[in-house]
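In the design runs reported in the main text, the only information available to the sequence generator was the tokenized backbone. The following block is the verbatim input for one such run; it is reproduced so that readers can re-run the procedure and compare outputs position by position.
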């Protein structure tokens, strides 16, 4: 892609009008590859990193970032040889997207999809400890002792599983809603962890990933991420570059 004037690129990205973008540049609020930009600067949308007020801006029109509210019964995969429904059946876009991590067939909620491989690798790499927030419906009430055991960590067959945070959100009659925040992607880790404590998970949903929240997006629907959300994902991994010598470990399903 040919280089373009910075103010034009910012305008196309929806940051501000071209004239307002020029003002941002003149005020020193725009940086390109870590350096304060000057008016008239040209950038390559596929190569250069542009930030406004310290937040990264997606200036590459070919890069797509999507949030999906995955329903139960849908596979987190690009295709399935058995013909079962997949998350890609719910998204009608020309770009070839890939899920960021996985949710198991029975788990619902927030799933990120993108064609930004570098950011995907960073978001799923265990060294970054990117937080994933889940809400689980379990038999209640959940006693304080059980909650303390959960917070201390549960020894599973593949090692210790310990949430970053865990709390009871709500208790109604014989049911309880638990919020569990994890930073790993081991296979069905949340279900196994709670099951080990005698808490059979009746329903499990992911409601946030890397600080980006599901909000009121309806189940089975998707939307493009907003610029602040894309910036948040880049910020949580320090720019999106995974360390050398390793790959993401979020292939496990919750």
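Verbatim output:
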């Amino acid at each position: 892609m040919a280089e373009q004037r910075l103010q034009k690129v910012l305008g196309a990205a929806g940051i501000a009008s071209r004239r307002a973008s020029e003002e941002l540049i003149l005020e020193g609020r725009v940086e390109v590859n870590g350096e304060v930009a000057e008016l008239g600067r040209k950038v390559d949308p596929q190569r250069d990193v542009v930030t406004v007020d310290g937040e990264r801006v997606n200036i590459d029109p070919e890069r797509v970032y999507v949030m999906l509210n995955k329903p139960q019964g849908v596979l987190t995969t690009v295709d399935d040889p058995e013909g079962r429904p997949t998350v890609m059946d719910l998204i009608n876009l020309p770009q070839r997207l890939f899920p960021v991590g996985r949710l198991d067939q029975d788990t619902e909620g927030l799933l990120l999809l993108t064609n930004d491989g570098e950011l995907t690798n960073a978001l799923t790499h265990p060294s970054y400890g990117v937080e994933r927030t889940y809400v689980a419906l379990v038999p209640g009430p959940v006693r304080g002792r059980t909650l303390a055991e959960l917070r201390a960590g549960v020894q599973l067959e593949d090692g210790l599983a310990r949430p970053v945070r865990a709390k009871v959100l709500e208790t109604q009659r014989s049911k309880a809603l638990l919020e569990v925040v994890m930073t790993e992607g081991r296979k069905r880790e949340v279900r196994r962890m709670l099951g080990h404590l005698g808490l059979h998970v009746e329903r499990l949903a992911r409601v946030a990933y890397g600080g980006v929240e599901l909000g009121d997006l309806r189940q089975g629907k998707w939307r493009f991420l907003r610029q602040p959300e894309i910036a948040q994902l880049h910020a949580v991994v320090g720019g999106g570059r995974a360390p050398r010598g390793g790959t993401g470990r979020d292939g496990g399903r919750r």
